[in-house]
Amino acid sequence: MEGERMCAFAEKAINEIKKTFENCYDFQIRALNAGGKGKFPAHIFFIDGLVSGVDLSENVIRPMTDWTRFERVDDIREFVRMITGGVVYNHTVRMRMNADEAIDDLLSGFCGVIFDQYPAILTFETRSADKRGIDQPKEEKVEKGAKDTFIEILKTNTMLIRRRIKDKNLKIEQVVLGEKTNTAVAMVYIDGYTNPEIVSKVRERLGNIKSEGILSTSDIEENIADAPKSVFPQLLTTERPDKFCLNIIEGRVGIITDGLPVGILAPGTFSQFFKVPEDKAHHYVIVTLLTMLRYAALLMSLLLPAFYVAIAMYHQEMIPTKLLQSIIDSKQSVPFPTAIEVILMLLSFELLQEAGLRLPNPVGETVSIIGALIVGQSAVEAQIVSPVVIIVVAFAGIAGYTMPNQDMSAALRICRFILVIAAILAGMFGLAIVSCLIIYHLCTLSTFGVPYMDPFAGSDARNIIKALSREPVMERQEKDETLFFGGDEK
To answer: Which of 10, 48, 116, 333 could cross-link with 383 by S-S, CB 3.0 to 4.6 Å?
Structure first.
C-alpha cells in the first residue's frame, strides 16, 4: 500500500484544511505510518495549544502506529474498524465526511487523522486540560453554603450542576452561537417540571441569536430579553453553582456559556433579585427580617436623596423646627444650592465606586477609604457641602450596597439620579410623578411570559407574603414555587 497514490477524498481534504489554516503558526500537520511499517499512510493534524501533547502521543499516535497490533491486518476498512472499536485509547471518536466538520472539531480541541486510502476523516478528542481551578466566589459572598464557583470550561460547569441535581429528567441542551466564535451554549432545565412554554421560548430565542461572537453575558442577555432597552435586569446572573441549581429546582431555565464563568437564569422577576441562597440556610425569622430590610434599603437608596432635595427646596414646612434650624445653620457658609450639593456628592460617590472597582484590590480599597475621607470630611471642613447632604448621600449609598444583585443595584442608581432631577424641577410633585412612571414601567414588563412584578402585582396576599418572608421548612411547599413560574403541578 505504500506505493499507492492518495485517494481523491484525502487529497482534497488535506488541501482544504491546509488552506483554511494558512499562516497559522499553531496549526500542525505531519505524516504518519499507521499500522506500522508503512501499511496505511496517513496525516494527523491539530491546533497546538488546544490539545494535550501527552494525550495525543500516548492515546492516539502510539496505539495507531504499533505494528504488533495490526500485523495481520491488510485491509484499510478493517484497520479503521479496529481503531474506532477501541484500539485507540480515546473516549470520543467521530467520523467526519467532509473537511468543514473536521475543522470545527479541530477548533474544539480535537485532533484529526486522514488516511490516504480511506474516504473519511477520524477525529479524536484530545483537549488540553489547562484551565483555571474551581475557586471560591469572588463577587457573591458565601456565608453558609458551597464554596465553589463556575469557571470558563463548559463541561466543568455542567459537572458542577450534575453533582447537585441528580435527577434523570435534568436536560442539558447545547447550541452553537456566534458566526466567528462558534461558542457552545447549554440550556439547563428539568423536563416535566419546568414550564414547557418558558423552555420553548428560551430555546427559540437562543436559536434566533445572530451575532459575530459570544464573548460576554450581554451578547446573550440583550438578545433574549423581552425589553432589552429597559435598565432593569430581566435575567438573573450568578457565579455560584448552588444558587444556579436552586433556581433550576424552582422552575427556571438556566443558560451556561463556554468561556464565561457565569450562569444566566430565566425568567428573572423583581423579587428574585432580592434573594440569596443563604435565605434557605438561616432561620426563617431571621430571613424574613433581612428580606424586609432589603426592601426598606431599596426605598431608602432610591428615594432618600430626591426626598431631601424636594423638602429642602420646596417643602421646608415638612421639616421639624429644630432640624430645619440645624440645616439652615450648616448651610450658612456653603456657596452652592442644595440641588448642586446633592448632584455633586452623588457624582463623587459614583466616581469613588468606579475607581474602587477598576483598580487592583489592595489599591482600590485604599482609594475608596482615602477618597471617602477626603470627599467627606475635607468637603465639609472647606464648607463646600453641608454635613446633612453628606449623611443623606452616604445613607443612600450604603443602602444600595445591600442589594444582592449588582445589575439591579446599577438600575437603582440610574433611577436615583432621575428622581433627584425630578425633585429639583418640581419638588414632591415631580418625585411622585416619576415614581409612578417607574412603577408603571415595572408593571408593564414581562419576562418570558411571566409578569416582572409577580407576585406584587396581580397576585393574592399569600404570594406577596411569601415573597417578603420565608416559611419554616416543614411548612414550605416546593411545588408552589414552581407553580409561581407556571410549572405543571405533579
So the answer is: 333
